[in-house]
Write a structure and sequence with these properties.
Rhopdopsin 7-helix transmembrane proteins, DUF6533 domain-containing protein, DUF6533, mainly alpha, globular
């Protein structure tokens, strides 16, 4: 008995359940941080809406929509209507490609704002990063446009199994990850330079109590959060890019589809976390601001994760970014 059809169906179902899992994780992350989102992003009094709020909205809510769309188009199609039903894949691919581009670019724009703040809003750094983002998006658009004009059959269909789509992408579609890789590499290098220079400056100023090394290594310290996320998240996406290139070149078709599923899921989490992690450390929660008459002991109960161990009122007017040469 030929086991190829069974293996193909098993892989097909595994891909569908992976899309379901990423959709559930995205919605779960949104629901569990919804209180922080409302308090730290939308209820803060500002004279006008900021660009970061718009980027946060695009990243989080378009990301939710993209994950739900993937779930409906992949899981429902593969499991409920079975794999022998062919849908309009070309039109759907264009829609999903646009949603992916919006979510990815909004995450990267949030990262640019973060790094620009670390460099005291140095215009040269900001222009460099936004120019790199534009070039990255242009490279992605060129690869996707050229790939959409070619109709390549899905390789090695198993006997008796009908694929959901009549065509796939050309083998060189993995080059779409190259512009993303170089952008994330640039972001990582700039963040590492800032971190190294900052920690050297901290070591040279140990006599200042507000610059003690123990404070900067505290996970609740504002500077720690800035540097940690600005280094960790670009590194994670670099690994994702390298993994997708390797899988697309060396592994079968469905393995590449699984890698793309994970890659499209990651910006939905990273973008919102870049904003929430920073603001959760910087701001006090709304109910803490209202409890003016409570004692210090009562305020400290259940508030440990919101309090910043570094008292911002005791810091001279010398921001961390000024330690980086202009």
């Amino acid at each position: 008995m030929n086991s190829a059809p069974v293996e193909r169906l098993f892989t097909d179902r595994a891909l569908a359940f992976l899309y379901l899992a990423t959709a559930i994780c995205t919605i779960y992350d949104h629901l569990t941080t919804l209180d922080l989102e409302v308090e730290l992003v939308w209820l803060r009094k500002r004279p006008r809406r900021t660009a970061v709020q718009l980027l946060f909205f695009l990243n989080r809510y378009v990301g939710d929509g993209m994950q739900l769309t993937d779930y409906l188009l992949v899981f429902v199609r593969h499991i409920v209507t079975h794999t022998n039903r062919v849908w309009r894949r070309r039109f759907i691919a264009v829609i999903l490609g646009c949603l992916n581009a919006v979510v990815l670019s909004s995450m990267q724009a949030i990262t640019i704002y973060r790094i620009s703040g670390m460099y005291n809003n140095d215009r040269r750094v900001t222009v460099l990063l936004f120019l790199a983002l534009i070039l990255e998006l242009a490279g992605i658009a060129v690869v996707q446009t050229l790939a959409s004009r070619l109709r390549v059959p899905i390789p090695n269909p198993a006997p008796g199994v009908f694929p959901c789509a009549g065509s796939s992408s050309p083998h060189w579609i993995y080059t779409v990850w190259i512009p993303i890789f170089f952008f994330e590499l640039l972001v990582l290098c700039i963040s590492l330079y800032c971190a190294i220079h900052h920690y050297r400056s901290v070591g040279a100023n140990r006599k200042l109590p507000w610059l003690s090394l123990s404070q900067w290594h505290n996970p609740e310290c504002l500077t720690y959060i800035l540097l940690r996320d600005s280094i960790t998240f670009p590194f994670i996406y670099l690994v994702i890019c390298i993994t997708n290139i390797f899988v697309s070149v060396h592994l079968p078709y469905f393995a590449g589809q699984m890698a793309i599923c994970v890659a499209s899921f990651s910006p939905c989490i990273v973008g919102s976390r870049l904003v929430l992690n920073l603001r959760e450390t910087y701001y006090q929660p709304f109910f803490y601001e209202c409890n003016v008459g409570t004692s210090l002991e009562e305020e400290e109960v259940g508030m440990d994760r919101f309090t910043n161990s570094l008292d911002l009122n005791n810091i001279p007017n010398i921001p961390m970014n000024n330690l980086v040469p202009s």
